[in-house]
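Recall the central idea of this unit: under ordinary conditions, the amino acid sequence of a chain determines the structure it adopts. In this exercise we apply that idea directly, starting from the sequence alone.
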Amino acid sequence: MKTIMVLLIFVSLLIFAGQAYCEDGDSQSRFLFFQADSDYGKGDFEEAIAGYEKILTLGLESGPLYYNLGNAYFKYGSLGKAILNYLRAQTLMPEDADLLSNLAYARSKIKGGMISQKRNWFKGIFLDMAASLGLDKLTRYTTTLYFIFSGLLILIILAARFRRPLIYISLPILVLLILSASLFAVEFDKILIQKGAVIIAEMADSKFEPFDDATTFFTLREGESVVIVATKNGWAKVRRVDGKQGWIPRPSMELL
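Accordingly, the structure predicted from this sequence is:
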């Protein structure tokens, strides 16, 4: 009995300590956030960046945090870091109008302009729809439609009397389920499967091979987005939005 009591007290102390730690961490992050906001308002963008980055080192992240960090980097003159953090914020709040506006403006500052992706109008609408909804919403929509459709199938099997109207109802639900699942697959692959990155160096020569003296294929500019295809000896093989691939030094980019 005494052993059980000791264990219960020990577990209670651990829970209390964990709650106290979390509350302390939250208080510290809130203080750092307000301090960084204050530094930003004063025009001290370097200090603001340091404050926001410190919050991230505490293991905390949010859409507004990445958005504010992106703004601070943009004001500080680090275009690549600004776009990087805008994109990180976009995964958490894909429909925020201010974020989308700032991201578009920052991308317009990429030297030489953004490389356009060749795609037909249908693919463009499909990809834009997936990006605008975001992974969280698509997960909820797909799950909800799946359970609704499954319930309708059960009713179709069990309720023969109402089979015909139930089939008519289930058909549009099935179409919406297929569409939602397809959009989810696109966004899931983009965010969780593909390794996206942003060029943070002023420029990065993309070479045919992962060597300094290899022939340059094309040049990437600060702020451009790429997908990592492979890595080797401090180099990364990346794919540009137009499909071209080449090797660049890994320090010239940062993962999303």
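The CA atoms of residues 198 and 225 lie 5 Å apart.
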